[in-house]
Amino acid sequence: MEMVSFGLVFLLGYCGYLVFTCLRFPTPALMGAIVTSGALSVMGYYPYFTNWPVTFAANTAIGIMLARQINRDVLSRILRLAWPVFVQTVGFLLLSLLSGLFLYWYCGSDHLSLSTALISGATGGITEMIIFGMSVDSANVGMIAFIQLVRIMVFLTLLPWLPRLVRPFLGGEPQPAQEHRPEHHPKLSRKFTGKQYGILFLCALAGALAGFVLRIPTGALLGAMVACGVYATAVNGEYSFDTRFSVAAQICIGAVMGQRITPEVVALMGSLIIPALLMSALMLVCCLCLAFLTHKTTGSSLETCLLCASPGGLTQVAFLADEMGADVATTAVFQSARLISIVAVYPWIVLPLL
């Protein structure tokens, strides 16, 4: 019976994914599933099923997907850009903390708990921050999803226009559209074989179980990501990940999260739009400062530095980098360092404050 209940919620989430894809929403699988399952919960029709196996499997799959960013090529690039990557990574951790405290101050403790504010202000991905929020009892994942979505939409809307707007202040020549395409280093990695995929899966499962048993924040996701990244780096291999697994994992996370959407949460979302926009404006100013520092220290184009310092989704920012003629490889290095540090380090900063 529980399988039937979950199947129903998953099917509705998939329908939401199709609709949100047509509407060109960021992370359509996650947000579509949240909206459809949340609607069931608000109306009182959300069916019962055991949540933890679903979230464990989804977190493990997302961890495997994120670990694709960890390889010898990326590590060698991080070493070459060690100082600017370190400065920007620390900057994003501090910006996440500052944004969360701003939300808490602006909204007040009566409207937004400290845990919800700190996780909402994080510059990680929507999926990863929702997973983190689900592991904190006092966090309201509905509000986290809403504020994170506003932030992503603001940055993805403004990013194509930012180089033209800020060039008079930051300087630099426009980036030719044909330059700085991704570099390929065939000697640094090779495609996984079938046997290596099996070992990769076992590594992911072992890492996820270790993180889950040790009660590490977002333990299954972080454990799978670290284990797969270490294995891929050790064998100097590169593996592919069918995007359908990522879509299914995000639908599962959204379907489980929808259970926490209540009429009270929906009523409060309208009052969060102003603080969410103000927080995004604060992030924008700070990210422009980080972009300026990166521009001066690396000599990279203004387009590349703005994309490196943007807290948008990694996939979306990489796609924009290709469209804008920026250095996609350098952008991916900075974005990967940001995402990995937020997932791996930020929970340890936040939890002692709660």
Overview of this protein structure:
This protein has 354 residues and is mostly helical. The protein has one domain. It has 18 helices and 2 strands. A two-stranded parallel sheet has the order 1-2. Helix 4 packs across helix 17, helix 6 packs parallel to helix 8 and helix 8 crosses helix 14. It is globular, with a radius of gyration of 20 Å. The protein starts with a helix and ends with a helix.
Task: Please estimate the helix content.
Answer: over 70%
Treating each run of at least 4 consecutive H or I residues as one helix, how many helices? 18
Q: Main sheet, how many strands, which sense, barrel?
A: 2 strands, parallel
Question: How are the strands ordered across the major sheet?
Answer: 1-2
- Which structural class is indicated by helix and strand composition? mainly alpha
Which percent range describes the beta-strand content?
under 5%
Tell me, rounded to a whole number, the average pLDDT: 84
Total E-strand runs: 2
- Sequence of secondary-structure elements: HHHHHHHHHEHHEHHHHHHH
- Please, how many domains? 1
Distance between the termini: 38 Å
* Sequence stretches where pLDDT stays below 50 over 5 or more residues: 176-188
Shape descriptor reads globular
Estimated radius of gyration: 20 Å
